[in-house]
Design brief:
alpha+beta, nucleotidyltransferase, RNA-directed DNA polymerase activity, RNA-directed DNA polymerase, 3-stranded antiparallel beta sheet, transferase
Length: about 190
């Protein structure tokens, strides 16, 4: 069953299903990426009426726009299409003029995300941020004796090294994320 409810002012779809022989209810919350895209667009529309220099636009992208999806990237794996759309919105904000006419993009977004010493503007690619948060999650899993790390080790590893364990069909999204980044983290 899927229920729609309001949560923090946004519509959220909640999928509930019965689990196990005891009939316990498991709820999975799915927050659509539309609210994030809308939030970024609303910030940009608030700045559109102002005369912003290219340096001002660069500063706003670095400090405000690129920090909006950070929490989402820490806890969820958004679809690549959402990350591309966000970066497209950032690029359009950087290159468009005050009268909203589409202007030529002089460099690819990937090139603008290089450090300034290498000819870029120092923007952060969202996929790189997601990979960084995944590596941090792996580090926390491997280095700490926290309850969640012990739980994951007990449920999936059972005495073997996490790299050697296969991903079962019932694996949680967190475990799938850890298994994807594990080989890179261990090398």
């Amino acid at each position: 069953m899927i229920y729609t409810l309001h949560w923090n002012g946004t519509l959220v779809n909640v999928m509930c299903c019965l689990s196990g022989s005891s009939g316990g209810v498991v709820a999975a919350v799915t927050i659509t990426s539309g609210c994030l895209l809308e939030k970024v667009r609303s910030r940009i529309s608030g700045w559109a009426s102002r005369l912003l220099s290219p340096g001002g636009r660069i500063t706003l992208i670095r400090s405000v726009l690129s920090s909006l999806p950070l929490y989402l990237l820490q806890i969820l794996k958004p679809p690549k299409a959402v990350l591309k759309k966000l970066e497209s919105i950032f690029a359009r904000f950087l290159w468009d003029s005050k009268d909203h006419t589409h202007r030529l993009h002089w460099k690819r977004w990937k090139d603008l995300c290089l450090p300034t010493e290498e000819g870029g503007l120092g923007f952060r690619r969202l996929q790189d941020l997601f990979d960084t948060f995944s590596l941090k999650l792996w580090w926390l899993f491997r280095s700490q004796r926290s309850l969640w790390a012990q739980f994951l080790r007990g449920k999936y590893c059972q005495g073997t090294h996490p790299i050697l364990v296969s991903v079962p069909y019932y694996a949680s999204p967190v475990w799938r994320r850890l298994k994807l980044i594990g080989p890179q983290a261990e090398s």
